[in-house]
Amino acid sequence: MKIIDAHTHIGKGFEKCLEPKELISIMDANKVCMSVICPIEQYITVYCEEGNRYILEQTKKYPGRFIGFASINPWYGDKGLEILKKYLDLGLKGLKLNPKLQGFRINSSLVKPFVKLAESYGVPVYFHTGTPMCAEPFQLRELAMEFPRVNFIMGHSGNTDFWTDVEYSVKDLQNIYLETSHNMGIDSLISFAGADNVIFGSNMPRSHQSHELGKIFDLGLSMNDLEKVLSLNISRITGGLK
Question: Strand (E) positions, 52-100?
Fold first, then answer.
């Protein structure tokens, strides 16, 4: 059975640091074949060009191990759209946005041009959620309803502050995928969203891949549902497994 970690950060950040070789060593220890990699901290907020270049370089340096997501601060406006287009053209497979770090509400008009560009490339958009005011599940619901052809990943599934909103924020929507990092109620996510819309992510290096994987293996899921959560769902929306 293949395992893909749908959310990790690599590079040297202000507080966090994870080198690509170190991540691959951790992946091998946990039998993870691929990881989605995103820029880290200041490379999400300020140095977006450098962060995306680094992510692209690592996908080429370690082919078959990494799926690269770009990250652009929406406050860069048209310049940011040019950067995003450049790196999607070069082969990155998704867009990571963090309203908490980048300073906007998920449903702000500021972010919509970037979602439209992601839609035109057919790539998913990952949003950090769980932070008051700017990163709430119902804000993502509003955006997902406006862009029904975009696949959105709800990072951390609203944890820690908004886990009670998640069930109602995804009701009757098929284009929001719930990511599992920092969650202790993964069984509940699967019960109301279905295994087709839940995705394993570790949020390395903030959390630990072995710990986040263990929570899923402890659920006692059927092999069919386990494969969906651990690899098939993220592969379907990124083209990760060929």
Answer: 66-68, 70-71, 95-97
